Amino acid sequence: MNLPLGDIVRAQHRLRPHLQPTALEPAPDLGRNLWLKLENCNQTRSFKVRGALNAILSLTDEARARGIIAASSGNHAAAVAYAAQLTGARARILMPKTTPRKKVKNVQRYGAEAVLFGDNYDEAETEALRRAAAGGVWVSPYNDKNVVAGAGTIGLEIAEQLPEVERVVVPVSGGGLIAGIAAAVKQVNPAVEVIGVNAKSAPAMFNVFYEAAHPQVWDTLADALSGDIEAGSITIPISRHYVDDIVLVTEDEIAAAMRYMLEVAGWVVEGGGAVAVAALLHGVVPADGRATVALVSGGNVDLTVLQRAVFERGIEGASDD
């Protein structure tokens, strides 16, 4: 399956009145010719707003009047809530009971209903799909052409901001982000290498790509990346067509990347948002001098999780040395 560049260009035009391009910031301490694409500075502090807003803006007035239903461990939830508020739609978001408080409050801040259900994302999504079948419009966090096209606008921005880009490193969960970015940059310049990064604790796309069987671990700093990929998701064939490689990073590597982002780059970043930085920081993806952009996909992290990454993991890492 392909995602036409025209769909992504139309998404960019649709989003332009509502969202500003995010900054591309040099990261010389991370390596030569390296930049950070700061989606943590986006509206709702995550890239997710691009896809959710594009999808909801694409609905008819009649569809929006039926109400929006979504499932999310956090960032997609806030994005849907914001997009619903912007368009005057009602939104109900199913969230796992373990969702960080900050992310629940983000949903409520935008006037949507946060429904805590299930012990993990998969259970929340199953219930959300059941409710959507009874009425309402389901907005998937990734398995939706308009959501993927919205994420793809990041790829267009990178191509405009850094025409000499040679490699893009992208966090991966259900694949909406990497499918959209890869489709955009590869159709603009097929020579650009696109590498996805899974947390080893949340390896769904890696498992699909390489027919591996790494288990899902729900207790992870990269909680936003957790969950299986929906059967038949459009992100799988798009990613297989455009993505060059997918790699894994560990919990300690994610924690170190979160500390790097806080102490060196000066940004608060969630674990799932830091996995691309983790891959470059630890040589999983070599900083080899090629013009490389690392996606920082989100900055919504609970203080307790940030403390765990900065202090507990920092102390563990020091003792291991």
Class by SSE composition: alpha/beta
Unreliable residue stretches: 315-321
Q: Bin the strand percentage.
A: 5-15%
The rough form would be described as globular
Q: What is the chain-wise order of helices and strands? A: HEEHHEHEHEHEHEHEHHEHHEH
Could you explain how this protein is built, in words?
With 321 residues, the protein is α/β, with parallel strands linked by helices. The chain has 13 helices and 10 strands. The strands form 2 sheets. It has a 6-stranded mixed beta sheet, sandwiched between helices. Helix 1 packs across helix 7 and helix 4 runs parallel beside helix 5. The chain is globular. The termini are far apart. The C terminus is likely disordered.
Supply database-style keywords.
45% helix, six-stranded mixed β-sheet, globular, four-stranded parallel β-sheet, alpha/beta, single chain, 13 helices, 321 residues
Q: Helix and strand layout, with pairings?
A:
Elements: H1 5-15, E1 24-26, E2 34-38, H2 48-57, H3 61-65, E3 68-71, H4 75-87, E4 91-95, H5 101-109, E5 113-116, H6 121-133, E6 137-138, H7 145-161, E7 167-171, H8 176-188, E8 193-199, H9 204-210, H10 235-242, E9 245-249, H11 251-265, H12 275-281, E10 292-296, H13 303-320
Parallel strand pairs: 2-10, 3-4, 3-6, 4-5, 7-8, 7-10, 8-9
Antiparallel strand pairs: 1-2
